[in-house]
Amino acid sequence: MNPLFFGPAETPLYGVHQPPEGKALDAGLVLCYPFGQEYMRAHRAYRQLALLLTKIGFHVLRFDYRGTGDSSGELDNVIADDWVADVGHAVQELRDVANIQRVGVVGLRLGALVAAEVCKARDDIDRLILWDPVLSGNHYDAELLAEIAAENLAAAGPHSGNGEDARGNLSYNGFVLSAAFRASMKKFDLLGAMPRAVPRVLLAVSHESDDFTQLRTAWSKLPGFRYLHAPAPHDWNFVDNFGGILLPQAVIRAIVSWVEATERP
Amino acid sequence: MKERALRIGRPTPLIGVVSEPETFDPARPAVIILNSGIMHHVGACRLSVKLAREVAAKGLLAARFDYSGIGDSEPRRGSDSFDEVSPRECGEVMDYLEKTRGCRRFILYGLCSGADASYNTALVDPRVIAIAQIDAYCYRTLRFYVEFYRPIVFRLDRWRSFLGRMLRKLFGQGPASDTQSRSQPEGEDYEIPTYTRIFPPREVVAKGLQKLVARGIFMYVNFTGGEPAYSYQDQYRASFPDVKFGKLLRVDYYPQTSHIITQPQCQAQIVQSIASWMAEVPTSGG
Lengths: 265, 286
Hints:
The complex is a heterodimer of chains A (265) and B (286). With 265 residues, chain A is of the alpha/beta class. Chain A is built from seven helices and twelve strands. Chain A has helices at residues 37-55, 80-98, 110-121, 137-153, 179-185, 210-219, 249-263, and strands spanning 2-6, 13-18, 27-32, 59-63, 102-108, 125-131, 163-164, 170-172, 175-177, 200-205, 225-229, 245-246. In chain A, a hairpin with a 6-residue loop joins β1 and β2 (13-18). The two termini of chain A are 28 Å apart. With 286 residues, chain B is an alpha/beta fold. Chain B has helices at 47-57, 82-101, 113-124, 142-153, 156-170, 202-214, 235-239, 264-280; strands spanning 2-8, 14-20, 30-33, 62-65, 106-111, 128-134, 190-191, 218-224, 249-254. Chain B has an eight-stranded mixed sheet. In chain B, α1 (47-57) packs across α8 and α2 packs across α3 (113-124). Chain B starts with a strand and ends in a 6-residue tail after the last helix. Chains A and B meet through β1, α1 and β12 of A and β1, β2, β7 and α8 of B. β12 (245-246) of chain A pairs antiparallel with β7 (190-191) of chain B.
């Protein structure tokens, strides 16, 4: 594992490049994290996914968007479009550091929404993998607000700090989405324009839902689209007191199997 | 402030990040930020990153890293327990900072199991001159129970709930549940820390603290409302009546916040408070 800082000098981004084990392909994948506690809980799963992808010859770069993890800045100075730009920097970094041409993107939850935006904006992405995607910025915002409303009904013990302030900043499980970030995120919608330039697209889900069915129906018009349901019950946003993390092996294995199968000549 | 990625040790390096102040003075102590459970070095709610940057802004060098097998550090061979491995690996980071930056004295910081690791490392490594902990080992006192039950005794809803439970028990009914509880999945999808947090007997910790006091180690111990065994500001000192902490110990209690400090205002307050304390630790120790 090679940790590194990359990207613009004024907003350096932290990432970990994992080179292939054994025979290397001319291909790589950038992993886009979800937000907040979901990011904390997904770190191990992403490390595992990266490891398995390197075993089938891929270069992998997982990285933190600006205002998150070890990357520079604070969330209150960032909007969702900045994250789209950050994925662009990560794609370029992986091309440069690994000396490869073909780069795909993988996104989990809000990261999937960001990854899809990247693919809509450019035509050089080799594959797109959406893992339990958030359907739109509006959906995500509504989901967090619903969680907070439910929590307020059952409030007990030390206060979580969850809620919306007068300026529209939303605090959820220790992370704050600024009003500006929320507004920019709401422009992102998987049911809007589709990323037509990406030759291979995977929708990998751990459970079935109306949202995923709707997305599957809409995106099945894309020529390289594939849907995979790998049951692995879990709740990304749950916060416990002892730092439990999620490792949905079934989904991870399903993604790696699809990547391997679609890479064969 | 500048940050650089770290790879420490071979063949399986420990991965981390160092935050370097604008003006670096190797004579001042460096800060090392430890993992909490199996959360990676960013820390609960990004607290470790915020603390490192605040510490660097105050002129101290700060390094955060992952123990082997956690976060970005790959597992190393061997079957030693976390209690054995953690002081050794933290020692490697101190060796590295000593060799590459000239740092010779260190302040350790940790939350929960990281707090335990900071204490255990301080016990065995003379380079540690101070520790800052959140939700450290603590023990109930008589007053703990008074403080814990006082708010409950005068609440009508608690009495109603208690009587309801008793009546249901009396008539052979199960517990009532009006909301579906959120729970974790079992099996391979959900991983909890392999480090099981067991508080050593109070006498053992008291003896250890006495050793730290004898060495003049500064201690800043913080407790949150998420620590079930803590209920009032002075409980820590009261738990160890025979340890003469004197001015070496400072304790702060944040009853309104959770164990992983999800409240943004509390995060800012705790980061500021710990970073300021660290910046004031005398270079020569106590």
